[in-house]
Structure formats: C-alpha cells, structure tokens
Amino acid sequence: MTDNLELEKKLWQAADKLRNNMDAAEYKHVVLGLIFLKYISDAFQELYQKLEAEKNKTGADPEDKDEYTAERVFYVPPSARWKWLQGRAKLPTIGKDIDDAMDALEKDNPTLKGVLPKDYARPALDKQRLGELIDLIGSITLSKGGNGKGKDVLGFVFEYFLGQFADAEGKKGGQFYTPQSIVKLLVEVLAPEPEKRVYDGCCGSGGMFVQSERFIELHEHRKGKISVYGQESNPTTFRLAKMNLAIRGIDAKIELGDTLMNDKFPELKVDYIIANPPFNVSDYNINKAETHKWKYGIPPTGNANYAWLQHFISKLAPNGTAGIVLANGSMSSDTSTEGQIRKELIENDLVDCMVALPPQLFYNTQIPACLWFLSRNKINSKFRNRSNEILFIDAREIGSMISRKQKELNDADILKIADTYHNWRSKEWKKKYKDIPGLCKSANVEEIRKNNYVLTPGRYIDFKEVKEDKKGFDKKMKSLTATLAEQMEKAGKLDKEIKKNLMKIGYEF
After folding, report:
1. CB 178 within 8 A of CB 325
2. Are both 104 and 208 inside the same structural domain?
3. What would the mean pLDDT of 22-33 be, rounded to a whole number?
4. What is the pTM of this model?
C-alpha cells in the first residue's frame, strides 16, 4: 500500500506540472478521463490475450463483444486501445483521436453513454502537454497482485487523484469528494454485509460505494455483491461517479437529478445508507407531494439538513441503518421546525448514535461536522435492545494533521470510534462497553428530554480528568526560568539577590 501511495504522489506531481495555466476543475476531467481510458483498455487487453491464447482450444474470438460482456469487461474497439493512442501521442491530431476513441467506446458500451469526457480536441488544450500526459499515464501498468484484493493500481491512482483535485479546487472541489477517512469511518461503523442494498442520494464521485465494497472484500474474504443505488444532481460529478465505479467493477444504478425534488428511486428500500449531503443548503426545494417523507415535520425553507435526514429515513428497510454527515448545527438548531423534527426523530427512537468530528477534515469547508447514525429497528435480534438509548461519541480531539490545513483520521482512530459503537450495541455490551469521560456516554431518552432534545455529545459526556503532571510542570518551569535568567544576564539585569533565589530552585550558574 505504501508503494502505491508513493507511485500516486509521483504521478500527481508529474501530472500537475503538465497542468500549466489550466484551472484544476477543468484539468480534472482531462486527466481522469485518460486514466479511465487506460484502465478499461488494460482490462480489455488482459482478457484479449487470454482469449487469443485459448482460441485454438475453445474457438473463442478475441474480437467478439459478447466474450467481454460475459466477463463484465468493456469491449474496446481498435481505435480506442491505449497502445494505438499512445503511438499517436506526439501528433497534432491527438486531441481529436481521443475524442473519437471516447465516442467509439460509448457506441460499443451503452452503459458508458454520456459518461466519458469528449473535449480533448479544443484549441485551448495544449496538444504537446496532452501527449506528455498520455505518456505519463501509459507508464502505469495494470496490476491485480494475484490475490484478488484491491482492484488495481489504476483504481487507486484514480481515487487518489480525485482527492488531490478536490484539494486543488478548494471549496468547489470538496462538493464532489468526501475525504476518505470519513468515508472509511462511516463504512466501518455501519459494517455493510454482502447481498444487501446500499444507497446514497447525493453520491458525489461514488466514494461511499467504493469503500463499502472494499470493506466487504476485506471482512468477508470475497467479492461483495452489494446492490448499489445512487443519485447525483451535478452532471459532471455524476459522470465522475460512473467512471469511478466502473473502474472498480462495481455494477451500480446511478441516476442524475435533484434528489429532494425528483427522487429517481421512489419505491426503494435499502439496508444501508451512507451519505454526505451538502451542508446547510438554503436554496433548495422539496417535493411536498411525497407526504410519507415529511411525516416528522415539513423542513424549513432556509436549510436542507432535516429534509435530507427525513428523505434518508424514508428509504430505510425495516432493519435498515444509516450514517449521514451533517453540519454540527443540525444537532442543536431550533430554527423554524428543526427542533420539533429532531424531537420527533428522538421520540420515534430513530437516532442510534451521534459522533462529533474533529475540525479540518474537509476540503471544502471549515464548518464543524458530525455523524448521525440512524436505525429503523433498535430491538433487532442481531444486536441488543437499545430502545430509548443513544450513544454519544466526542471525537473532536482524535486525528492528526497531514498538512497545514488538513486533518485525517488514521485506521487506529477509525477503529477506536467504530469499536466503541459496536461494543455498545453488542449483546455482550456490559462486558465490552463502558462510558469513558471525554470520549463516550450512553444516554437514555429521559436525559435527552431534560436537555431539550439537543444531540451535541458534549452535553452528555463527562469531562475528562486532567491529571497534574508535576514532574513535567517542574521541568517546563525550570526551562523557562533558565531562558529568562540567560536573557537577564545578557542584559546585565541579573543581580545577586535574583541569582541567590534562582539557585534555591536548582538553577546553576
């Protein structure tokens, strides 16, 4: 994994140099489209060679599209194959060649229709740099590692580049990308199982689904056949999601459209929801005809947080669970109908766990965020009966800085939070779980009523005791005193009386 990361960093640095004066938001589609093209060309070539080798034995035709469909591999026509394109990388027509390749791919693979970028021939795109970029991406080779774990190097590169572009674009870029550590945390807490349905109504570039599948592969030791459903309102982000999932071999039903106004899956009920809707959106509308969604109250016009919460609840199957990222204000806001809706969610026993996240985790905002974990059935026999209880976790002090402005949760941090939740809902919870000051507290509904239905973890978790470190304090004071004494001596202001007093507390001259 470390080798992969080093490769990804080097590739990013090289690709970013080729950006020249192009805006990151524009360059993103140039690079990711080429990585996608390289990926499907490599996957095709691998199967092509296998079919070619078996041709005499089985009669397989390497140019038969059906052979590729059967193996869930995209058929790549000759004019779109990477080797052919890379051979033309230095020609001034390379931009048109790539556009034609994308067209040919969509023609032969209907699921890719309208997904691939096709603007490489535009005059503003430097063709020399485009050729250099093709050579750079051509240096990445497909590697499945032979153990079935992880899809391939190109898949990791695609994912890494998504994050880097989100960082480069700043606020705008973060809207399509949820930092990987937050996605990992959501998935680790929900622990999706194979043969289940997963939904995200604001799926961005599809990272939630990628991590869900990866979780299943890791824990079930086999490919997880989850059913994936998603909706995304931004057309360019929608295309990124389709590419990101295709590069992972994830068969997903992703629709384009405004989820709150035009739900593309009106009858859908799912086992897991993993979502990061845009924070505190004020300019939004809901479909008021969908009365079943707003049974806990009509959300206010100025903030979509409680519209999203209720939309997701409406999608949960009888034993379904959800993990949703929202702004911290959602835990305590009393604006318009928000307080009343939150009260209804609590009294209907839908809230299972609340997590306060550390700051600086997101690319696009400094707004403090939290995680809502919802459960349709808290007396589900798989776990203990948690009726009228909510677990509060304060993770604000967890995580470490990975750059001047960015914080991240590492694997140990993620497991610490997830294990706290799993131990709490376990049937053996009395052995496994305990309230920890500064970290977690299991509160009953009576306590929450007394706090006016506010769900901020800090309201319930006991303060962490700060032990006085006398030795450390003395050492620090001695160091500070020594520094002060040296400065006074240099300035000629250290008289005999001060020297005598300093020597009493151990300072030597």
Report:
1. yes
2. no
3. 84
4. 0.80
**Contact assessment for residue 307 and residue 357, using Cβ atoms and an 8 Å cutoff:** no
Predicted pLDDT of residue 19? 81
Residue 509 lies in a domain: no
Helix or strand or coil: residue 449? helix
What is the distance between the alpha carbons of residues 229 and 213, in angstroms, rounded to a whole number?
13
CATH number at residue 106: 1.20.1260.30
CATH of the domain at 203: 3.40.50.150
H or E element that contains 373:
strand 369-375
Residue 354 has pLDDT above 90, yes or no: yes
Closest CA to 327 of 310, 309, 314, 353: 309
Q: Which residue has the higher pLDDT, 6 or 385?
A: 385
Average pLDDT in the 339-348 region? 98
CA distances from 22 to 124, 127, 168, 275, 507 (A): 9, 13, 12, 31, 61
Q: 297 φ, ψ to 5°?
A: 135, 145
Q: Which residues contact 367 (CB under 8 A, 6 or more apart)?
A: 279, 280, 327, 328
For the cut 80, the answer to whether the pLDDT of residue 365 exceeds it is no
Residue 1 pLDDT grade (very low, low, confident, very high; cuts 50, 70, 90): very low
3-state secondary structure of 363: coil
CA pair distance 141, 38, nearest whole angstrom: 9
Q: Is residue 69 part of a domain?
A: yes
Distance between CA atoms of residues 239 and 114, nearest Å: 8
